[in-house]
Amino acid sequence: MIIDCHTHLNRYSLSDPPTLRERYARLQGEMDENGVGYALVLSSYVVNDDRPSADELLELVDGNPRLGIVAGVDVPRLGADQIGRLSGLLRSGRIRALKLYPGYQPFFLTDSEVHPVYRLAAEFGVPVMIHTGDTYNPSARIKHAHPLQVDDLAVDFRDVTFIICHLGNPWFTDAMQVIYKNENVFGDISGFTLGEFQPRYERLALGKVNETAAFINDPCKLMFGTDWPISDIGSYVRFAERLEITTEEREGLMWRNAARVFGLGVEGADGRRV
Ligand SMILES: [Zn+2]
């Protein structure tokens, strides 16, 4: 069983299929080919021809039990309108989490203007996923994407679960400490590479994730995600297979933690619900 907790259906480059339906078909093909049973699709912080809204994604995957949707938040335009829309989506029970994109957007996670997002997450009991570290955009300002900020959120919003996406890459040390210290913080291992892993960088990333798992020493904290189509799913599954972690950590990483954190109600091969 594999859960990919971090995928997108945005069109990032001209080589991605132009229509949303084609990209959706491609994602399902990739899931089948690589043994991924369930995936979360994250909407962007902007909506345009290449980036569907959470509403469009919900309509697209309606009735598909293998896909869940996470709603991206556009923080600089976070007014009553957007809060109302997000609140409506959350009330429908069809959104699994909210996603923030600091770095891609110029704000600090601790800014008071972002607090309504954390209050929404607390009210509806959904996690907040947070982009951290390197960005796929040269005009981003990565000081906003440093994972150490998540510690402040974890302390100030104890009833909210936070997910440090990409383990803060390359600030792994900061991310691992914040995850280790805070009961309400988790990490996903997505987005370390463009396309397939190249051997030299794969060795580096394997070392970092092994180190993170050893330091945290808790099988319930890390989750498998790819960032597809930015990273290749097959290459990522092989990457995860090469990690030097315990059997319990592997099971947690590959599906059990995501099933629990996102409340997916997935049943394990052993019949235990998580
Ligand atoms: Zn992503």
Q: Write down the Rg.
A: 17 Å
CATH class: Alpha Beta
What would the principal axes of the Cα set say about the shape? globular
How many angstroms does the end-to-end distance come to?
13 Å
Poorly predicted parts:
none
In total, the number of strands is 8
Number of helical stretches of at least 4 residues: 9
Helix and strand run: EHEHEHEHEHEHEHEHH
How confident overall, as mean pLDDT?
95
Question: What ligands does this structure carry?
Answer: zinc ion
Oligomeric state of shown chains: single chain
GO molecular function, one term: carboxy-lyase activity
Domain Amidohydrolase-related: 3-264
Protein name: Amidohydrolase-related domain-containing protein
Pfam family, one: Amidohydro_2
What do you see in this structure?
The chain has a single domain, classed as TIM Barrel. It has 9 helices and 8 strands. The protein has helices spanning 20-34, 54-61, 80-91, 115-124, 149-156, 172-181, 199-216, 233-241, 247-261; strands spanning 3-7, 38-42, 67-72, 95-100, 128-131, 162-165, 185-188, 222-223. Helix 3 (80-91) runs parallel beside helix 4. The radius of gyration is 17 Å and the shape is globular. The relative contact order is 0.14. Zinc ion (ZN) binds at residues 6, 8, 42, 191, 227. Residues 6, 8, 42, 191, 227 line the site of zinc ion.
